[in-house]
């Protein structure tokens, strides 16, 4: 059967994959598989694939099962599911097969990520309980009594977020879940605004938690600090660290170091500056920046409509605690970089016109990833960092049928000279069946952010336009990430000038 051009409703045929996690013995990768059903609803379930490419589905249904994580001994998998309405709960499923059982009994609220303790006894997680006036139960009671909907009372600038809705005065906190009993308790809530980044100590006795201590975090200069918090909730702040931004916190396997991504200068926030990788002794003391000799940004996000978007840095310790792995966005590519702890600096381990998203790092040096390019939707694979060539080994082929039936336009790369000599990087996607010298209507795609980048990733929307007879042009004008701090800084305080020229 001949291939046909892509149509808008072909979006419904795409399989999305994300959150890859190698098992402790490196035999399987756990991941989330998402598709769209005939009711236009995203369906997410947990799957595994072994290193020979054999896949197994672990959960089913429309409950939104996701964020799966292996227990440290590999005997079970913890995940978050909405199957126990109205709120999400933690579930456990044996890794040798069997039925999942509910672990937690959380009130209605929002769970935002979790991590097993290395000894497997606890799960630390971020949770925000719903406002009592806006729970599902409260809504039903009002309906039964014929009461009107109450007004939303706002006492802070931080009261809603796209994709999160209205949370009003409710705030996230760090909680502990006892795996043996299923009991949960709030451990720590000293942050002055939502936003905790944390990791476990190797001995499972403490958490390193970074959060804002600014009195007015949306108005005052950034001031995020690192705290060590024991299992009783007692906290102490690490001394001599910068007053700036902190995210992607990770404690080294040998226990000696705590790394994070961020910036040193408090003025501003997430902006045109490069996000750098830092490290400090786990007991506090002089910190150092590991990535300031190169012009990479640790948070150069690549935009696309067929892959999971991530705007935070991704830092992972190597098993020997001598280096860190990171996603490096550069010139429309996303590569695996390795950062030397002693010497600093980033070495790119992968090459090619594509993108990767990092999962975890196994003890044998393998890294779980999802990957793709301009003509290939994301799939699951791994990178063996101890091999001579750190190539991506692809394991899944969920979108093989999609690509076998549909015609895609391959973008052509271009570099343009602007009036002041700045090089502008972009792509041109020609219509299916393009014939020169015929003229075609053109669409200029402009990305938001503005501190993000277009790149070498499959873009369904653009493919639909090309199939409909349009020339699609998309670029990374000044203000974009991935071309050095100067390129991004060029529009600071001056929107609509150089970016408009580009």
Compact description:
The protein is mostly beta strands and 502 residues long. The protein has 5 helices and 36 strands.
Describe this structure in words.
By secondary structure, the protein is mostly beta strands. 7% of the residues lie in helices and 39% in strands. The chain is built from 5 helices and 36 strands. Strand 28 and strand 29 form a beta hairpin. The radius of gyration is 23 Å and the shape is globular. The two termini are 42 Å apart.
Q: Which descriptors apply to this entry?
A:
globular, mainly beta, four-stranded antiparallel sheet, single chain, 36 strands, 502 residues
Strand order of the largest sheet: 2-3-4-5
Shape: globular
**Structural class per helix/strand content?**
mainly beta
Oligomeric state of the chains in view: single chain
Count of extended strands? 36
What proportion strand?
35-45%
Look at the structure and give the mean pLDDT: 94
Largest sheet entry = 4 strands, antiparallel
Helical proportion, percent range = under 10%
Which runs of at least 5 residues are low in confidence (pLDDT < 50)? none
Distance between the termini: 42 Å
Our count of helices gives: 5
Cα gyration radius (Å): 23 Å
